[in-house]
Design goal:
By secondary structure, the protein is mainly β. The chain is 0% helix and 51% strand. It contains no helices and eleven strands.
Length: 112
């Protein structure tokens, strides 16, 4: 079955960086666009970034442009989200989506 497992979340100070990973299995990873979403407390889940199946195309939500970088390694069936210049408003649970399934999420907390 399709399985997505996120990792790399944690507590970071404002201005810091984190790299999230999402390991996929159970589907042909290299054929699918992959997406990162996030959901902050009391807010709706929102799209953070997406990457095409080959990694040749990416798209970002406006508030993440220039700070976040999505990438993928099809040999490892893994998608990444490099998050730089983190702000307190980036605090959320970050989810990976692809192959018709969601991961369990990883908590990112930006606080001093």
């Amino acid at each position: 079955q399709v399985r997505l497992v996120e990792s790399g979340g944690g507590l970071v100070q404002p201005g810091g960086s984190l790299r999230l990973s999402c390991a996929a299995s159970g589907f042909t990873f290299s054929s699918y666009t992959m997406r990162w979403y996030r959901q902050a407390p009391g807010k709706e889940r929102e799209l953070v970034a997406l990457i095409g199946s080959t990694g040749g195309s990416t798209n970002y939500a406006d508030s993440m442009k220039g700070r976040f970088i999505i990438s993928r390694d099809n040999a490892k069936n893994t998608v990444y989200l490099q998050m730089n210049s983190l702000k307190p408003e980036d605090t959320a649970v970050y989810y990976c989506y692809g192959g018709g399934a969601w991961g369990q999420g990883t908590q990112v907390t930006v606080s001093s």
